[in-house]
Amino acid sequence: MNLQLQDKRVLVTGSTSGIGKNIAEKYLTEGAIVYINGRNEARCREVANELTDLTGAEGRALAAAADLSDSEQSDALLADLEAQGSIDILINNTGIFEVKPFVEITDEEWTRYFNVNILSAVRLSRALLPAMLERNYGRIVNISSECAVKPLGQMVHYSVTKTALLSLSRALAELTKGKNVTVNSVLPGPTWTEGVENYFQTLSEEEGKPIDELTRNYFADHEPSSLLQRFVDAVEVAEATVYLTSNRAMNGQGLRVEGGIIRAL
Ligand code: NAD
Questions:
Q1: pLDDT band at 144 (very low <50, low <70, confident <90, very high)
Q2: Which of 7, 26, 88, 121 has most Cβ atoms within 10 angstroms of its Cβ?
Q3: Which atom of ligand 1 has the smallest separation from the CA of 67?
């Protein structure tokens, strides 16, 4: 199937590892020009080179470093990108998560979660959506989570931000009526990435159990409704995300890539 993504300019935030890196790789294999974002310039270049070697997409993976929780760095990145051409597809993937008891989450931490997980997406969407509407082509995807609709007691702050992303996506989609511009969200389930490895490291320290024991029993103990009964592969999230941006009729929705954990119609 031709996804018609050849030469599209794509910004994937938080793409130096995990789900974002896999999304970036998929776009490169579809012939797109992809901006690799993370906080560290050298790491962004390294990943851009690595993905070029993997996909043979010479000159099409470009470093775009910025800490997107910082509005000044976000603005500077947008100015840099604008000078190079318009962004057709924005994937707001940057996100942080960690297990923490609700009573220990301070105002500062709530603010940090809002900044990284929501405001990073708000700032970039606010800057890029008007030009997408003007050109009558654009795609925005916010990477939410299954916990947006099945909030987790051990990650209240994270769950709240992911629910907010669903609302942001739908509200922005309302602004696209009649245009070839879509705004959607993707809800991955537990997906094995560096971020999740860190999550299990914390859990392992808290519960005094080795990581392999925790992961072996994770789905039986914590996610019995999962039909997949294993971690989602980051490639599976990436393929669903890229497909979502190839189809104009899919707009204002949340695509669940969570192995059937959410037992709802
Ligand atoms: P990860 O920790 O492996 O990767 C996160 C990426 O974001 C990294 O490239 C990191 O450098 C970048 N990043 C972090 N803070 C940043 C900032 N302030 N500015 C710019 N870049 C920043 O995470 P992941 O597991 O691949 O998760 C990616 C997204 O998917 C997140 O939004 C996460 O909430 C969501 N998600 C993950 C899972 C999962 O199980 N892994 C499940 C549901 C949703």
A1: very high
A2: 121
A3: 19
DSSP 233: P
Q: Please give the backbone phi and psi of residue 137, each rounded to the nearest 5 degrees, phi first.
A: -155, 130
- In sequence order, which ranges of 85-155 are alpha helices (DSSP H)? 107-113, 120-135
Question: In testing the pocket of ligand 1, which one of 19, 77, 117, 120 has its CB within 8 Å of the most ligand atoms?
Answer: 19
> Do residues 82 and 3 lie in contact, with contact meaning Cβ atoms separated by under 8 Å?
no
pLDDT digits (tens, 9 = 90+) for 58-86: 889 999 999 999 999 999 999 999 999 99
Task: Judge if the beta carbon of residue 259 lies within 6 A of ligand 1.
Answer: no
CATH topology of domain 9-191+233-257: Rossmann fold (3.40.50)
Taking the domains of the chain in order of start, what are their residue ranges?
A: 9-191+233-257
Residue among 17, 50, 144 to mutate when testing ligand 1 (max atoms within 8 A of CB): 17
> Does ligand 1 lie within 6 Å of residue 92's CB atom?
no
Q: Does 217 have pLDDT greater than 90?
A: no
Q: State residue 216's pLDDT score.
A: 87
Cα 149 to Cα 120: distance, rounded to the nearest angstrom: 21
